Amino acid sequence: MDTNTIIWIVQILVAFAFIMAGFVKATQPKEKLAEKMAFVEDFSAGTIKAIGILEIAGGLGMIFPSLLNILPILTPIAGVGLVLTMIGAILTHIRRNEYSKILSNIVLLALAAFVAYGRFVLVPIAG
């Protein structure tokens, strides 16, 4: 399998993960989210929705700029944004002593960083 194909597979996986997680945060009431995501107690309902919308935007940015070849530089930029989002998530879980929740954040951070590096350096999509 060539590098471009591997990057595309990771882009799709990252996009799916963030779009789904973002959709839940953007559409569910804070009280319902708190049943499975204790960290929401630390943030306002508006902040949780904003995080969800940013995750959806990052997920869409993983796919559509490259797929449509319209401003494809937005794909690695979305990757960097999602890396920053995961750093925030990791710091939140550390502050809350929720160390068991950090592994998934680290995996998503690494995958988003791989896409950013892949599309900035390894196989950029020419626009």
Task: Describe this protein's structure.
This protein is mainly alpha-helical and 127 residues long. The chain has one domain (3-122). Helix content is 76%, strand content 0%. It contains five helices and no strands.
DSSP strand content: under 5%
Order of helices and strands: HHHHH
Distance between the termini: 24 Å
Parts with pLDDT < 50 across at least 5 consecutive residues: none
Overall pLDDT level: 94
Give me the number of helical elements: 5
Rg, rounded, reads 15 Å
Overall domain count: 1
Number of DSSP E strands = 0
- Give a short account of the largest sheet: none
What percent of residues adopt helix (DSSP H or I)?
over 70%
What class do helices, strands and sheet pairing give?
mainly alpha
Q: What is the approximate shape?
A: elongated
